[in-house]
Design a protein that fits this description.
This protein is of the alpha/beta class. Helix content is 20%, strand content 21%. The protein has helices spanning 23-31, 91-95, 122-134, 174-181, 238-248, 262-273, 296-303, 355-360, 400-413; strands spanning 37-40, 46-48, 83-86, 115-118, 140-143, 150-151, 170-172, 184-186, 191-195, 200-203, 206-209, 212-215, 220-221, 254-258, 277-281, 309-312, 317-322, 329-333, 338-341, 343-346, 350-351, 368-369, 382-384, 389-390, 428-430, 437-439. The strands form nine sheets. The chain has a five-stranded parallel beta sheet with strand order 8-5-4-12-23, covered by helices on one side. Strands 16-15-14-20 form a four-stranded parallel beta sheet, covered by helices on one side. Helix 3 (122-134) links the parallel strand 4 (115-118) and strand 5 (140-143).
């Protein structure tokens, strides 16, 4: 089937409605290669040639070979060289029951507390998947503060523009993933304290012994001083996003977004494309101020001319209150401005929660300090990966490093040859579909 819309450099040309296809045209169409799909090895994103990537300027029908070499993955920002051909399982194979690993056998497994992973985000699930591929009998327990469902977090800031319903963002439910990987999932369970001496993790559902503990609980959204958590949204996981979408409803709303960094700009762009009126505030004089040298903010502001987005720089929010009568929010800035809106969304950066690290006496350097050779912390038997770690005091809160961190950690946990993790400068993909940007 020939896709509708503009076509790429190698896509076939659709015939005129009043034209009969000629035998030569039919022969050429029959000889054209079928559409191919390619998978990103860093995050699992699938590029379908038939669909293209319109947000990046690749119309439907763009062949993978014709994509420029500097194109970046829409989810994690890696380059074209990190993709390879992908073939989806056949419907017959999908209908077959998934093979289950054999039950643990032998004395070596008896009483083995195995590996406990705290956090069911991208890092936690990808580590569990990799460990299970290498060892069918390894006891694995996954502790999750949420339901543990698997989804792509970067889609939260582009779902409205792509007309994705909140419930459609889940790729695999937590219980289904747990059954497939034959692991123990503890959903809606908070990790409270680590006792490193006895190798126990205290949770809201009791104590868990561990042979190896992996912290993959990620980072939390910052809450600026003076803002009450019950008066604003912080979109750092699927459940919060689903509640925001429900609160917005189907009618256009006035939304104030505080913070014009990467996430704030993506959310503002997406909300405006979804029909809402957005006021974007930041302490800096322009959006994406971190990339001022690349004129990122100026490019966005120019692209937003036709959208209902009002940006105001040099603004600090002093207070947020809610009217008991109208239910609307009143936002007052330090400069004396007043805004009345339906919802307030905060995207003012991330920080790593330190409670678990402090309870175990882990070394801390603006995050959990780890050894890049093994991702081990300062305490024996405790490792960490993902958004909660720092290497030489530097955090890298993007998707691309996770796959490489998983390779490093899996090798260490399974006693294989070391695969040291190398921190690299990130290639950042700003998913503002009005004007997508790839920044260094």
């Amino acid at each position: 089937m020939i896709p509708s819309g503009p076509t790429g450099p190698s896509a076939p040309t659709a015939p005129r409605p009043d034209a009969r296809p000629s035998p030569v045209g039919l022969a050429i169409e029959a000889l054209a290669p079928a559409w191919q799909t390619y998978i990103c090895h860093a995050c699992g994103y699938l590029y379908d040639e038939a669909l293209g990537d319109p947000d990046s300027g690749l119309p439907p029908g763009t062949r993978f070979a014709d994509i420029p070499d500097d194109w970046a993955c829409p989810l994690c920002g890696v380059t074209k060289s990190d993709f390879s051909p992908y073939t989806a399982p056949s419907p017959e194979r999908l209908r077959q029951p998934l093979p289950q690993p054999p039950a643990p056998q032998g004395r070596a497994r008896r009483g083995d507390a195995g590996i406990v992973i705290v956090g069911a985000g991208k890092a936690g699930w990808q580590l569990a998947e990799t460990l299970r591929q290498h060892d069918a009998n390894l006891p694995i327990t996954l502790v999750s503060a949420c339901a543990g469902d698997r989804y792509d977090k970067p889609l939260l800031s582009v779902a409205l523009a792509r007309q994705l319903p909140p419930e459609g963002l889940v790729k695999e439910s937590g219980p289904d993933a747990a059954r497939r990987l034959n692991l123990r999932l503890l959903p809606h369970t908070q990790a409270v304290r680590i006792c490193a001496e006895t190798r126990q993790l205290r949770t809201t559902r009791g104590n868990l012994g561990y042979r190896q503990l992996v912290l993959a609980h990620g980072a939390e959204a910052e809450l600026p001083a003076g803002l009450a958590p019950g008066l604003c949204w912080r979109i750092n996981h699927l459940a919060a996003y689903q509640r925001l979408r429900q609160a917005l409803g189907d009618s256009p709303r006035d939304v104030l977004v505080l913070g014009a960094g990467l996430i704030g700009c993506e959310l503002a762009n997406d909300l405006a494309l979804g029909g809402h009126r957005v006021r974007l505030l930041d302490t800096a004089s322009e959006p994406l101020a971190r990339w001022q040298a690349q004129a990122a903010g100026a490019q966005l502001l120019a692209a937003w001319q036709g959208l209902a987005i009002t940006f105001e720089g040099g603004q600090t929010v002093a207070s947020v209150t809610r009217s008991a009568d109208s239910g609307r929010y009143h936002v007052h800035t330090a400069g004396g401005q007043h805004h009345e809106v339906d919802q307030v969304v905060v995207a003012a950066g991330l920080h790593t929660p330190g409670r678990l690290a402090r309870s175990a006496g882990l070394q801390w350097r603006d995050g959990i300090a780890v050894d890049p050779a093994t991702l081990a912390t300062s305490q024996p038997g405790i490792h960490a990966l993902g958004d909660c770690i720092t290497v030489e005091g530097v955090a890298s809160r993007y998707i691309e490093p996770i796959a490489r961190q998983v390779s490093t950690l899996a090798a260490a946990l399974l006693g294989q040859a070391a695969v040291p993790y190398e921190a690299r400068p990130a290639l950042v993909r700003v998913k503002t579909s009005s004007h997508p940007l790839t920044l260094h």
